[in-house]
Amino acid sequence: MIDPGLISAILIGGLIILLAIGAPVSISIALPSAICMMLIINFDNGAITSAQQMFRGANSFALLAIPFFILAGVIMNNGGIAERLINLARVMVGRTPAPLVQANVIANTIFSTVSGSAVATAAAVGATMSPMIRKSGYDRSFSAAANVASAPAGMLIPPSNTLIIYSLAAGGTSVGALFMAGYIPGLLWAGACGAVVYFYARRHPELKGEAFPGWGVFFATVLRAIPSLGLIVVAIGGIVAGFFTPTEGSAVAVVYALVLSLLYRTVRFRDIPGILYEACRTSSIVIFLIAVSSIMGYVMTYARLPQLIADTLFGWTDSKVVVLLIMMVILLLIGIPLDPTPAILIFVPIFLPIAVSYGIDPVHFGIMMVFNLSIAVISPPSAPVLFVGTQVANARLEKVIIKLTPFLIVLIALLFVVVFVPDLSLFLPRLLGLV
């Protein structure tokens, strides 16, 4: 029998080396995992078992929710929704200091729940807001930092593909419960970004609020945005109320988004093949990651990696607080080079049993994990949201990083609040009887 220690070394070492030389994440996971599988069994049976594990990982009805929500987001991204949501955000902030940046934060919060992608949000809203912000004399580095910091709020606020992936990795934790659990931490994320903008504006009195446009303009803007917000109400409301499953809700979201975009005349029938191609390309990446991670999960179980890490942590300390801090630091560091999807698929099987052994609810652990990884996607040096936000603002990366630092400090502090105050995550699911 092959030594589990050797299997662990090949698995972890191969992953690190392949990532370091710039190999795609899916290949970095699949290749060492398949090699280990062949060493555990033999070449022929190992190859067959690896293929079977990939099929088993992708063969899930619940997994269909991800490509459907991605498709709904792509339709909305191409359907002129960003402009309506930005206008809504602008009339909401009113006379607030630095109104355009505050509107950027609010628009990102709303739009990211619709698009389901922090990168797409930073690009779509940032590209629309940046010219207005530059024309109004704002510091483009700070406005870019605010755009970057607020874009990941939708990873917590449903419909969130990241929470769906966590549900699959966590053995079927209720998607409805996770969706409800994400609302308060997600809104706190947006509020924290708004607070940093507010205190920045207090030190820059030239960034005055805008005059109230009048109740007529206000209500007209709200009415124009309500149909776009209806996607969230229909999809999430139906899932939580039990009218349909998350997969069925995602299909409803696609139909709703398509009909709305056709009614707005922002999407034409000839645009649909391109939209389907974009959604298919994004979905295939996510699903392939899930498939190859199933091989890794099998190998990790053989090598007893979760048990080994748990025993190591228990050997260091029996303090729940210390163990949670160690896990959060590891996730924050590993989430910088890794996308949230592979990070969740790799570390949930390792960390969740440890968290449950300390009496932590799987729903609460999912929220703290996604909150952590949301910080990682905006943290330098390899943060995709940071690069996109900097590019659309036409700003210098090093200056944006400096302006981003206060946001990161506040968000990391908020992470500890989310970790150690479980009621922030569990209040709504308990209220609705979901946990």
Detailed description of the structure:
With 435 residues, the chain is mostly helical. 78% of the residues lie in helices and 0% in strands. It contains 20 helices and no strands. The chain has helices spanning 4-20, 25-40, 43-58, 65-77, 81-93, 99-115, 118-135, 140-150, 161-169, 175-202, 215-241, 246-264, 272-303, 305-316, 320-334, 340-357, 362-376, 384-393, 397-420, 423-431. Helix 10 (175-202) crosses helix 19 (397-420) and helix 10 (175-202) packs across helix 20. The longest helix has 32 residues, at 272-303. The radius of gyration is 22 Å and the shape is globular. The relative contact order is 0.15.
Report a brief summary of the structure.
By secondary structure, this protein is mainly α. It contains 20 helices and no strands. The protein is globular, with a radius of gyration of 22 Å.
SSE diagram, text form:
Layout: H1 4-20, H2 25-40, H3 43-58, H4 65-77, H5 81-93, H6 99-115, H7 118-135, H8 140-150, H9 161-169, H10 175-202, H11 215-241, H12 246-264, H13 272-303, H14 305-316, H15 320-334, H16 340-357, H17 362-376, H18 384-393, H19 397-420, H20 423-431
Helix pairs in contact: 1-2, 1-13, 2-3, 2-13, 3-13, 4-12, 4-13, 5-6, 5-11, 6-7, 6-8, 6-10, 7-8, 7-18, 8-18, 8-19, 9-16, 10-17, 10-19, 10-20, 11-12, 13-16, 14-16, 15-16, 15-17, 16-17, 17-19
